[in-house]
Amino acid sequence: MVQELGWFDVVDVATAGEARCAAARAGERCGLDDVRVRELASAVAELGNNLHEHAGGGRIAVRALHRSGLRGIEIVAVDTGPGMPGFPGCSRAECSAEQLRGGLGAAVRLASRHDGYSLPGRGTVVTIQFWPRGVYPAAFVATGLTRPMLGEQISGDRFGMVLRDDGPILLVADGLGHGPLAEEASRSAAEAFYSATTDSPAELVEAIHHTIAHTRGAAVAIARLEPSVGVVRFAGLGNIAAAVVGTPDGAGARRTGMVSQPGVAGHQRGTVHESCYPLGPGDLVILHSDGVVDRWDLAAYPGLAHHDPLVVAATLLRDAGVRRDDACVLVARSY
């Protein structure tokens, strides 16, 4: 489970300090010991300093993680600076502390897990996780990232995921409009998603539709990955974009769009239909709200598809997200 705690604009030492303090408070709340909290604060300070000193500013997201009874903190640092020449871009395993610029190297050495991607002229994304000392969980096969529109503190977009041994079930919900009422609609959709007893995307959309009738409504989409049989099952209402994307090669990335039906969950819909799409090993399933322009192409980012889903989501959110709307990207990798 991921709880998003907020975004922080970093343009100078003072704003970098705000992100550091927010991360330290989050670490304390999730039960990290004093030494680990200080290490977390130090790592975020290094990321913030790197943003304003080398990238001309950027943004930091602070997130709380809950997994298998453990709690941790995740940090996402994003910029649109010049990029980092020589930054590892093709393999997550190559993104080592020794290869990173001073402050970044110090940050990832302290982290339980890290990943990053940089493209000259486009900017850099770095993610770090802090868990209790000695805990090194595997990467999430699916995760997402949201941000509110410019001027808002909360987002009406939300993602959800149930990670099962036979494949994850994914949700993206976009509450109509912006602000608290949109957030209420998407939160209610997520609550219905997590409390449902079915794994059928069509039945989940139906359950959400009936549950959130008291709200202003939402666009919703559900994807159920079934790697063992090579398919993804999908159902959606409203303007949520979804696609299966193959690993890019010299000919580009194979991209198969998944089709939602017109309607608004909670208010108007026809019969909800479920469709199946081919899913190969290593394919990415990407869902996003209409706060993200649908013209992105992973082939324009060499090596990105091999990185953690969060790095893919953060890169697409940075480059394809529009600031006049809430935005959400959810990425899952087949296996």
Structure description:
The chain is of the alpha+beta class. It has two domains: 2-130, Heat Shock Protein 90 (2-Layer Sandwich), CATH 3.30.565.10; 142-333, PPM-type phosphatase domain (Phosphatase 2c, domain 1). The chain has six helices and 17 strands. It has helices at residues 13-29, 34-54, 102-110, 179-195, 201-211, 309-320; strands at residues 2-10, 58-67, 70-79, 113-119, 123-130, 142-147, 157-162, 169-175, 218-226, 231-237, 241-245, 255-258, 263-264, 268-269, 275-278, 284-288, 327-333. The strands form four sheets. The protein has a five-stranded antiparallel sheet, with helices on both faces. α2 runs antiparallel to α3 and α4 (179-195) crosses α5 (201-211). It is globular.
- Using only C-alpha atoms, the radius of gyration works out to 19 Å
CATH H level, superfamily name of the largest domain: PPM-type phosphatase domain
- CATH structural class of the largest domain: Alpha Beta
Report the biggest beta sheet as strand number plus sense, adding barrel if it closes.
5 strands, antiparallel
Going by helix content, strand content and strand pairing, the class is alpha+beta
Tally the beta strands. Answer: 17
Mean pLDDT: 91
Gross CATH architecture of the largest domain = 4-Layer Sandwich
Examine the coordinates and then state which fold CATH places here, giving the name of the CATH topology of the largest domain: Phosphatase 2c, domain 1
Low-confidence stretches: 89-95
- The secondary-structure element order is EHHEEHEEEEEHHEEEEEEEEHE
